[in-house]
Amino acid sequence: MSTRREFIRTGAAIAxxxxxxxxxxxxxxxSSLALYKVILDLAFPSSAAFGRRASxxxxxxxxxxxxxxxxxxxxxxxxxxxxxxxxxxxxxxESLFCLERLAWDHSMRVLFRAFHRxxxxxxxxxxxxxxxxxxxxxxxxxxxxxxxxxATAEAFAGFPTAQGALIQRTLRVRGxxxxxxxxxTLVSWVIGPISKTTAA
Length: 200
Description:
Layout: H1 4-19, H2 25-28, E1 35-40, H3 45-56, E2 61-63, H4 69-82, E3 86-91, H5 93-104, E4 108-120, E5 123-131, H6 132-144, H7 148-157, E6 166-174, E7 186-193
Parallel strand pairs: 1-2, 1-3
Antiparallel strand pairs: 3-7, 4-5, 4-7, 5-6
Helix pairs in contact: 1-6, 3-7, 6-7
């Protein structure tokens, strides 16, 4: 049976993620960042789960190995030559490192990043840096939901076009359900054009 505190926390998490729902963007008079591709690495179960949820939300997903050379030469580079379009993903830190540097040449940068580190068999440390609305929503979701990968995909689907000031949060979460186990450090991220409203 749920306690009053659990009910309030769950309600807050749902409200926060609803605030990022792209289907409600027009009602608020703002918009969500259009994502060209969502990148996942099937070598990592958490990344695969993230990709499944992103696909369910109608986002175009692309499975790529940790070596993003093929993705870059055959997809991203030709597209970015036309115009700077945003991408997101849940990959190894090495994959993000490469993509971030390639994005610099197209006037884009990392707008959000969160490191997900295994602490023990049932705990994950999340270190989030990004727009205040996104970081706060995910901080709430990570503490109330086992499927942190789903929450991440949902937040990216409603990622705000106008990002504003960046903040950082670190939290350690214990859980026993889906998403509780993580074998290695992964990073979730959004790369996009630099917004005029984003603090330097």
